[in-house]
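Weekly structure sync - notes
Attendees: PM, LS, DV (DV joined late)
Agenda: review two folding runs queued last week.

Item 1: First target. Sequence and structure tokens pasted below for the record.
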Amino acid sequence: MLLISSILITFGNKYLIILIGYIFYQQAFLFKKMDNVVLENNLRYLKKEDNYLKMSNKSKVIYSIITMIIALIAGPIFAINSYLPMYFCICICIINVLLSFCIFDINEEIKTNKNCKEDKKEKIKFSNPKLIFIILASFGLIYSAISVGQDNSKLLIQYNLEKYFNIGLTATYLSVIIVISRISRIAGNLIFKKIYSKMKDKVNVFLSILLAIAFLCILIGNCIEASSIIKITIMATGFSLILGIRDSIEVYTTNLILKNTEIIEQPKAISYLQLSRRAVSTAMYFIFSMILTQVELIYVIICLFIFAIIGISINVKLYKMIKE
């Protein structure tokens, strides 16, 4: 699906073709997230299921390093030829398609060994629906706040830069901030394992508090009367913090939902996890689009800060449920 989308978006000469390509692109990630189930199943078969978080976190470290490199070279490559980045994208997608044939899911063998054959006509029900609902609510709210907050925070920083610098310097400084935030993302993934080993399930509450602090930094940086360097530094700190916790929240929540579902429930649980994020983020984007026709962007950040506070309370409840 990613290969099809990259081809349609690159070579499509009509809006409808590009739109279809974008639809393929968005839907591909719903299927892509099933790799979490495959990883969990294979680790369980090897009796190494406790390594899931370690392996998933390692993949995020690799991903964050690659995306940082892409952020550094995408501009120069685009300057050489505007289609060149997409040509590279298509080549990578072809490699991924070939690699996908090397991945095996031994889910069926596990089911046989544990005598948990699924009746396809029977609707799958979660064994602990209340806990699953809280996990979905937590992830939907927090991850959506991160996703929406990342876009709008970057835009707010850009607006503040434009107050002090010309277009050229604004673009340069913004690029530096984005690269720093990518480094923060790598650092966040690298230290997450150590934080989790000390805090265990409290880590979700901790990450939610960091998200609230990130939005607070952006609000303070925007509102205080200070030099441009101080203002932008405080805002950039908040922006980097958002990137620093993004992957960790997804890794922890995915691990949590897999640990609290049966094998036959896991594909459905992962689908619902992604659905919760997309549904909430779509609602947020729609609401904030309406809000921005009447008020300034800073009010969106205020709303996201409030959502982060609500997320803290949800995760406190979630932690108590896990410990019961």
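Item 2: Second target, run right after the first with the same settings.
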Amino acid sequence: MHYIRKNASGIAVTDGRATKRLACSLQGYLDTLLLAELTTFEGRMAALRKMTGMKRNLPIYIDDSICLYTTKSLREPDAICINFHRVLSIRDKKFSAEVIFKDLSILPLDMPYRKLAHKHAKTACFLKRLEN
């Protein structure tokens, strides 16, 4: 999975080759993914807060291949969750940013490059902290 995008009818899950549209909430889909790990979204987030000491903007760790960070709050209608493990690089555009994935697909985002780069770097630090 490359990213999950919220839209008016539910969510769209993109893996680079195809996009799956689902009529469910983002948190409901994350709960489905986390049930395979024997937890729920709220339970995982509470455990990660306790384990890392981070309070806000916590990446969403699903398993070893999926760790998501968001472009906006999960409550926003146009939030996007990007899978850290699939990102090759982030490119600065004049007033926006682009995420380049390992399969060379590109996701243009309407957010400042510095903010996106900060979220990506923070997720990398978060994953290193989990390894220890």
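Discussion on item 2: The first helix runs from residue 26 to 35.
Action: LS to circulate a short write-up before next sync.
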